Amino acid sequence: IKSETRDQRSDSSIKKCVSQENMSYSSPAQQHRRRELWAWLILGCAATNVIFLGGKRRAFGVFVAQLHAEFNGTISLAELNWIGDSYAAVGYMTTTLSTSVILSSGRRFQFFQMLGTLAILLACITSAFVPNPHWLFLTHTVFHGVGSSLILSTVGL
What we know:
Elements: H1 2-17, H2 28-58, H3 60-70, H4 77-93, H5 95-104, H6 109-127, H7 136-156
Keywords: Membrane, Transmembrane, Transmembrane helix
Region (Disordered): 1-27
Protein name: MFS domain-containing protein
């Protein structure tokens, strides 16, 4: 009788692992492996974003010279440097908040990685069309700072 019960248990555990869409057998080890590969893919994308963020952050001086020439000297170099430095500061200051939001939302890393990437894309696109250099504080500092905060938080978790 015990062997029948054991067989029935193994049958029911196998039935739980059979996907309903294609009715193919997927063991718990295979499911774990897929989740693990997906996690490594997310981490790889996040790390790539951090590499690009760091490069842009360290090379912002190149943008300062071009922006100063573009706006015909209507804004000082110091103000342009503040824009570059303040987006890094906003990013670092909001990392605690974005980490808390990611954790409280059930660790939806893919969603927040994509949201951060879209915020940085929005920052870059809107910064290209500003009529006044002072708008860069909103378009570049705030959008880019929050976006980089989301990416750094995703990688850190």
